[in-house]
């Protein structure tokens, strides 16, 4: 690179074999693309003699041609790092824009033979395969090429031809902002060829990137199609061309390494080129083409089995619903290794003659937590019988006896029965004639002849497989076809939500999964994808806890009513709550939420002190009622929070020792400043009636307050007749591990405590606990009641949650596993500077992401992208804090050490491979 005045330029010397006319064609094409699209491309610099190409003499005496090109700032997307869906879509649009811009481009320099021209792959491979020493690999590459070319050749003449970039890959796509592609370099393979080759080459380059499987790569197809519609013939040959490209890449690398064994570049490239080939050939071409067609919004018809004679006597058939929401799978039964067989045995023992599963249903029994979607869709029907059952031929056909059962061929379809099969016939059979006898369990599949049906596939791949695999249910059991409720379509459900639920009542994630089940620290969506719940402080004892379910069901059968009735549960619950707090805090108010709890706590303070003025801490959220919203100062929750406060709300700096005004050892100054504000307000004649603060800086990411902070401010407020209100809604109830309440960490005792969330494990339940004197002060406001707060069911919920926390030692678990996780995350931060620090204790941790550890610049956009990638890796977590750059780690308190390891592994993958 040279500096030509104020703008850096790139001196590029072409291979001596490249003619000047080819380089001039590339320059003209680049100028046209820049003019028509705005894509950043390296435009040529004009030499003093008015040319853009000039001859140069190389050190070895050979003559070549050189150009002075514009230098594009940024970097390419080369390497195995992850490409997010929006990045893949941008690459697809980039390829389409390039092709649209060059649609009418004509230049003799672009009409030239090119090894990478996909029209020449058969001839090119014939030469390259001579360099592949591994006979098995050579045969494999030849088979891949022959299979793909058999699809391409019949329609080759119908494929549109134009000039394309010819190498629009991750190596040549440039990003200026470090993430989104906006430029293209190296037009050295510019060539007139099949237009669809552009997209095939681009797609192939995506397949070696971390986490980019076939469905993910289809985002590029959708984006390309939105800019430039592919013809029917192009859709049919696109994936065969991807496979051909993969074969040429691998063969070419072997050729280079045979002629130049020390070529490290070729050796390194071979690793990811083998990944490209493996991905390109991972499914049959018809399946991949169906995936392409669906991505392009073009019909890909499903394969149907013809009507026939029912194979099985349909009496006493029980359908085994294995979907994520099936009641058969409650209480974690889906996690048992033999869950499917056990459910079938239970049904048969209860009187069913036959059990049958639902074809192509996402089975929760196949799902496990993990970073990648599981193979949960079985493309067949599993049978179990209580006594030997005869299977009859649904149609006339030819039967082959196989090692594991039988295969009936008829009309291009193969019906297979594999498992505990005996008495199998062989040869020609007529409709209704005996095929075999099932004596235990068997699987029945129906597929296009020549297609092998896999054990199971992912939900994303299932529709494409359904174009070559048919549902055998109707011919298997006739009118008693095994059915189950269809899972909700996420896009349709989201549209309905947005049409009926107020828009400001937001949901997590731009493309939210449809959650249908929870179990302990796991969440399950409608597609049987299992997620690690690292976010849910509402569900303190774990999702669907059987003890809580039973207790609530029992109480609902007995009584649930207005809390002003007299019943034992409210008394027992209030006693248990009060016993968890210092002696003088012995009066309990029961409400429905954290917002109500903080609202009531402030009303009690006003009633007791007779003052309206409240002192609050900035960057905090306390609720959505009129009063709690007035004292909430988090601009992440309300951008206008600081400018719309009423005059009676006063604030002090958030005591953040990491990024606030006073940092590190200077953080003690926060308490001094807050005390000074208390004194100032008192001197001004507006002494505060209440000081409200979270006892750990929870909303900002679990940041501990500076030592002695609450003690100093509480003392100052009380010296002027005010009271101290502790917001324990998020951080209390044992979540911190070492302490049951956050105020214990600060070694203080507040006057009023507000708590909620963890109390009810998802049931609406909150409380305010205070002294008898302050509680009685509310009499000046009338009397208090909450119809559902402290109802019989709510009280039983609260009691059961406390019992489980005690009996299952969940506070101790928070201390031990939380400390282990914090240590592992801290170590991760030593290797990844973007993870600046890890705040908090126990199960309220706040990994904070920064762009610079010196300036502490928040990595806001990065944190949002990290959370989205984690969700795609099976971890549910969200950002928090005014800068939205802290992970809000507050899982169910049954979170295990193995789950902590899984969380770290997923985060490490994101930080290593990108987001």
What is the element layout, followed by pairings?
Blueprint: E1 2-4, E2 7-13, H1 20-37, E3 44-45, E4 54-57, E5 63-70, E6 75-76, H2 85-101, H3 121-128, H4 135-152, E7 161-164, E8 173-175, E9 181-184, E10 191-194, H5 196-206, H6 214-227, H7 232-259, H8 264-280, H9 285-295, E11 317-320, H10 339-349, E12 354-357, E13 381-385, E14 389-392, E15 397-402, E16 405-410, E17 413-422, E18 427-429, E19 434-448, H11 462-465, E20 469-470, H12 473-477, H13 490-500, E21 515-519, E22 522-525, E23 530-533, H14 546-558, H15 568-579, E24 587-591, H16 594-609, E25 614-617, H17 626-631, E26 649-652, H18 669-683, E27 690-694, H19 709-719, E28 723-727, H20 742-745, E29 752-755, E30 766-770, H21 772-777, H22 792-807, H23 810-831, E31 835-841, E32 844-852, E33 857-858, H24 860-872, E34 875-876, E35 879-880, E36 886-887, H25 897-913
Parallel strand pairs: 11-12, 23-34, 25-26, 25-27, 27-28, 28-29
Antiparallel strand pairs: 1-2, 2-5, 3-5, 4-5, 6-8, 7-10, 8-9, 12-13, 13-19, 14-19, 15-16, 15-18, 16-17, 17-19, 19-20, 21-22, 22-23, 24-30, 29-30, 31-32, 32-33, 35-36
Helix pairs in contact: 2-5, 2-6, 3-7, 4-7, 5-7, 6-9, 7-8, 7-9, 14-22, 15-22, 18-19, 23-25
Strand content: 15-25%
Number of domains: 5
CATH superfamily of the largest domain: Aminoglycoside phosphotransferase (APH), C-terminal lobe
Number of helices: 25
Q: Identify the CATH architecture of the largest domain.
A: Alpha-Beta Complex
